[in-house]
Amino acid sequence: MKKALAVLALGLSLALAQGKITVWTHFGGPELEWLKAQARAYEKTSGTKVEVVEVPFGDIKQKFILGAPQGQAADLVVSIPHDWLGEMAQAGVLEPMGKYVTQRYLSDLQGVAVEAFTFGGKLFGLPAFAESVALIYNKKYVKEAPKTWDEFLALARQYTTGSTFGFLYNIGDPYFNFGFFKAFGADNVFAKDAKGNLDPARLLLGGEVGEKALAFIKDLRYRYNLVPEGVDYGVADGAFKDGALAMIINGPWALGDYKKAKID
């Protein structure tokens, strides 16, 4: 399952009229420098001042929802994951973005990305990029990625010892589990209605597909003894950074920390 991230706005029209835009971002390092460069370029061409403010990723949603009604939120946020959109839109703190873009611009984007930031028939975010999870392995233990489930399970069990783990991941998070459902035939989480909108009343993860996927996830813990009780994102991520874990399911946001930890 891909997670799309986008730019979204609150009261952008008013900010533009007043000649100053405040941007919240969780970016750091090269990404932050890129964003600041874009802000400087926009200032030169538009005459509108752009203030870029760093906000920790985990604080953005709640700070925006609570601050917006008081006039204490940013005009733009770069960026948020699409699964925050519904809550923020229902809180009434987002401005629809459709009037700021052309159909030509939208037609150049992946339809699934535009759909991810559409809520109640309105576009609330401009897709910036998409990311997904994958199997990441430590070459100290695994020389090349396993090509079959049998190879994967054999490696995971081989390196599950008293001092190392073969495979861990955030087993309690549906986002990290969707790949297993996909492997057993799930097309999506929800079906679509006659208008092409996702229908939350029609879940596609049940039936034979769901039974097989959940059985495999259950076996990871109780049959193969690979993901013990108490393992969450922090535990798995920490074990990989410590060099005690052979394989993990995680996303590209974690790679920087793994490189800093000198994991190959």
Automatic annotation (TrEMBL):
Superkingdom classification of source: Bacteria
SUPFAM superfamilies: Periplasmic binding protein-like II
Homology family: Belongs to the bacterial solute-binding protein 1 family.
Pfam families tied to this protein: SBP_bac_8
Annotated GO MF terms: carbohydrate transmembrane transporter activity; maltose binding
Keyword Transport in record: yes
Cellular component GO terms, alphabetical: ATP-binding cassette (ABC) transporter complex, substrate-binding subunit-containing
Signal sequence, start to end: 1-17
Protein's GO biological process: maltodextrin transmembrane transport; maltose transport
Keywords assigned by UniProt, alphabetized: Signal, Sugar transport, Transport
Statement: the UniProt record of this protein carries the keyword Signal: yes
Name of the molecule in the record: Extracellular solute-binding protein
